[in-house]
């Protein structure tokens, strides 16, 4: 069976990062013969998908290839199916939204003392973690893993959106973003929050409250409930939030500094 483009991309990324074919085969649970075949194809043709002229056409575009390689280099332990899922989600975005990535932190508490946070991005990934979000953790756990890989995939049109929360505006974060070199949407100091994830987060919390008829007994129970309800949110709910953005923006402009009904 031919190696999938996602796994082949991981092979090339790891080889070019200095790993031996034996080490790559062990890490990706492949035979050494399969790894050699991918490397030979890459050396001969300059890419790691099936050569033109065979019974099946090319599975991935050059942009896909860049995303596979950059994602693998930033997280060597990703499985090919995980890379494939991320790539499929990116391909499924509508063009007008595919160039934008946003983050938002939400709090879903067991009680008033809990600081569990669940973070989402428009690409569909989610990260659950405990503890306060510092600037360093924002870089290492969010930007480097869940944002930077999208830059190579989207290209020059990439725009990142986050608000003026303290970890986002820290000097070390601004320096990191400058070094990586991606565009950030300007966010005025006094502004209504138009991030549609705000409303998605509220929907998730309503669903969790409806699902659990008791206070969660542990962080793990809360995380399980949050993940299950997140995947139960209909795609149409998300699409409606996105489609409402023009009306939201018109109302913000009309009301100026006043609150909107949203």
UniProtKB/TrEMBL annotation:
<dbReference type="InterPro" id="IPR036397">
    <property type="entry name" value="RNaseH_sf"/>
</dbReference>
<dbReference type="GO" id="GO:0003676">
    <property type="term" value="F:nucleic acid binding"/>
</dbReference>
<dbReference type="GO" id="GO:0005634">
    <property type="term" value="C:nucleus"/>
</dbReference>
<dbReference type="InterPro" id="IPR038717">
    <property type="entry name" value="Tc1-like_DDE_dom"/>
</dbReference>
<dbReference type="Pfam" id="PF13358">
    <property type="entry name" value="DDE_3"/>
</dbReference>
<dbReference type="InterPro" id="IPR009057">
    <property type="entry name" value="Homeodomain-like_sf"/>
</dbReference>
<dbReference type="Pfam" id="PF13518">
    <property type="entry name" value="HTH_28"/>
</dbReference>
<dbReference type="InterPro" id="IPR036388">
    <property type="entry name" value="WH-like_DNA-bd_sf"/>
</dbReference>
<dbReference type="InterPro" id="IPR055247">
    <property type="entry name" value="InsJ-like_HTH"/>
</dbReference>
<feature type="domain" description="Insertion element IS150 protein InsJ-like helix-turn-helix">
    <location>
        <begin position="10"/>
        <end position="47"/>
    </location>
</feature>
<protein>
    <submittedName>
        <fullName>Uncharacterized protein</fullName>
    </submittedName>
</protein>
<feature type="domain" description="Tc1-like transposase DDE">
    <location>
        <begin position="138"/>
        <end position="211"/>
    </location>
</feature>
């Amino acid at each position: 069976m031919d190696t999938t483009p996602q796994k082949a991309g991981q092979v090339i990324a790891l080889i070019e990062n200095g790993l031996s074919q034996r080490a790559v085969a062990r890490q990706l649970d492949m035979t050494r013969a399969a790894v050699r075949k991918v490397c030979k194809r890459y050396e001969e043709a300059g890419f790691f998908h099936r050569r033109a002229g065979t019974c099946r056409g090319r599975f991935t575009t050059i942009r896909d290839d860049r995303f596979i390689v950059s994602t693998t280099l930033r997280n060597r332990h990703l499985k090919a199916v995980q890379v494939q899922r991320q790539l499929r989600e990116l391909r499924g975005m509508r063009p007008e939204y595919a160039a934008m990535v946003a983050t938002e932190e939400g709090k879903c508490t067991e009680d008033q003392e809990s600081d569990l946070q669940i973070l989402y991005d428009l690409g569909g990934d989610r990260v659950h973690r405990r503890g306060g979000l510092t600037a360093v953790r924002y870089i290492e756990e969010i930007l480097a893993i869940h944002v930077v890989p999208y830059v190579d995939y989207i290209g020059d049109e990439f725009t990142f959106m986050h608000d003026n929360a303290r970890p986002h505006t820290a000097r070390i974060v601004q320096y990191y973003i400058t070094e990586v070199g991606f565009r950030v949407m300007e966010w005025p100091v006094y502004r209504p929050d138009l991030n549609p994830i705000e409303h998605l987060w509220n929907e998730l919390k309503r669903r969790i409250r409806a699902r659990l008829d008791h206070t969660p007994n542990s962080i793990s129970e809360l995380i399980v409930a949050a993940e299950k309800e997140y995947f139960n949110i209909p795609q149409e709910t998300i699409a409606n939030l996105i489609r409402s953005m023009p009306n939201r923006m018109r109302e913000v402009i009309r009301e100026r500094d006043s609150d909107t009904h949203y």
